[in-house]
Write a structure and sequence with these properties.
This protein is α+β, with helices and mostly antiparallel strands. The chain has helices at residues 17-20, 29-38, 80-93, 120-142, 164-169, 192-198, 201-214, 224-229, 231-242, 256-264, 301-304, 309-323, 336-341, 358-371; strands at residues 2-7, 43-52, 55-67, 95-100, 111-113, 146-155, 173-184, 218-221, 268-275, 278-288, 291-299, 328-332, 345-355. Strands 1, 2, 3, 4, 5, 6, 7, 8, 9, 10, 11, 12 and 13 form a 13-stranded mixed sheet that branches. Helix 3 (80-93) packs antiparallel against helix 14 (358-371). The N and C termini lie far apart (54 Å).
Length: 385
């Protein structure tokens, strides 16, 4: 007998939760607990346990996200037609949406079940039932209407696409989103020197130029105490990058990085870039089993171009991943061209989405097709064949 249970706090989750999701840190209690204490103020978390009798055989992470019109599609100069489409998407999606997955990180970090203990269609049916119950609960207890439902971030070869009948029956549209940028780490790379040797001449020169421009800036790993001490500066550098983004659906609170370090210990890394003892940039990493997940970063505008801070961060992320024997480095979406220039490959991703208004839902696929991200950037191939 299959059933589901909705949970509102990490402390209420079943004892066997972490054992079930040991493959993915983003599904584990320590990470989720931190989100409860340091999530963006427009994101609320829910958890679903799927049971076969009394045994936990599946889970789902859900987020209620309040999307504000002023934060969507910012700082962009586009044609009148695209401006019209942007406005249409903003109006369709503004308000509260319910995301099955983690809006704060690229990739599928919201669904998992044991295929040998529950069929995929049955599992999805129970998750969707929980979504419908949460819609009613959120309206009744918080007075907030859920405008859209999204099952987030699936690769093209994900087995979930075999359940197309389920998504069609429930009127969810499959749409393309920006790719995940992932760099496989070759087994023969034992150091950053091996990576450098594998680059074509053009990209070797690019690497050397970036390293030269870094100049006197020194990268240091920050301890928990240092993260706390510099939390305001770190947050300001993060916001500097966020405020120049084309699209924002949330802003991290100031205590986010310190909370993650306190909760995840050595599985969360913060590296700061110092110039004359002044913090001018930083990046963060999550050590997710054999995958190195790049997380949020920040830098000041004064030193970004002159010292090529962002490109140097990408190289340093590669260095850490290679020298610590990770199988891949997940650079996530955005800034696809520069990430491909260091070796990341664009892996296509899709989401399933549904507007709760029938008329709006009928329009949704057409609108997203118009917004479908064309590859209007040049994919680089930096390695010698």
């Amino acid at each position: 007998m299959n059933s589901y249970q909705i949970y509102h706090t990490v402390e209420a989750l079943p004892k066997t939760w972490d054992a079930l999701v040991a493959h993915d840190m983003f599904l584990q209690k320590n990470y989720l607990r931190c989100l409860e204490h340091a999530a963006p103020n427009n994101i609320q978390l829910f958890y679903v346990g799927i049971f076969n009798g009394a045994t936990l055989v599946g889970i789902a992470i859900l987020q209620r996200v309040q999307l504000y019109l002023k934060n969507m599609f910012r700082n962009t100069k586009v044609s009148c037609f695209k401006e019209f489409i942007k406005e249409a998407v903003s109006k369709v999606l503004k308000g509260n949406i319910l995301v099955v997955g983690n809006l704060m990180h690229t990739g599928q970090h919201g669904l998992f079940f044991q295929k040998e203990h529950i069929p995929a269609e049955r599992y999805l049916k129970l998750v969707f039932e929980a979504v419908e119950v949460l819609k009613i609960e959120i309206k009744k207890k918080q007075g907030k209407t859920i405008r859209a439902i999204m099952f987030k971030d699936f690769f093209e070869d994900d087995a979930i696409h075999l359940e197309r009948g389920f998504f069609t029956k429930n009127k969810l549209h499959k749409v393309m989103v920006q790719p995940n940028m992932i760099m496989p780490v070759k087994p023969e790379w034992l150091s950053i020197h091996d990576y450098f040797s594998a680059l074509q001449k053009k990209y070797k020169l690019r690497y050397k130029r970036a390293r030269t421009k870094l100049g006197n800036i020194e990268a240091k790993e920050l301890t928990l105490e240092a993260i706390r001490e510099h939390s305001q500066v770190l947050h300001g550098l993060y916001l500097n990058v966020c405020n120049h983004a084309k699209f924002n659906s949330f802003f991290l609170p100031e205590n986010h990085f310190a909370c993650l370090k306190e909760s995840l210990h050595d599985n969360f890394k913060v590296f700061g870039y110092y110039l004359d003892d002044k913090l001018v940039g930083f990046y963060t990493l999550l050590l997710n089993n054999k995958r190195l997940e790049t997380y949020f970063l920040g830098y000041d505008s004064e030193h970004q171009h002159s010292h090529q801070l962002y490109l140097n961060m990408l190289y340093d992320m590669a260095k850490y991943g290679i020298e610590n024997r990770f199988s891949s480095i997940v650079y996530a979406r955005t800034a696809m061209e520069i990430k491909s220039s260091v070796g990341a490959q664009a892996i296509k991703m899709q989401v399933y989405i549904k507007h709760t208004n029938g008329f709006m839902n009928a329009m949704l696929k057409q609108i997203f097709n118009l917004m479908n991200p064309k590859q209007n950037w040049e994919e680089r191939h930096p390695f010698s064949s």
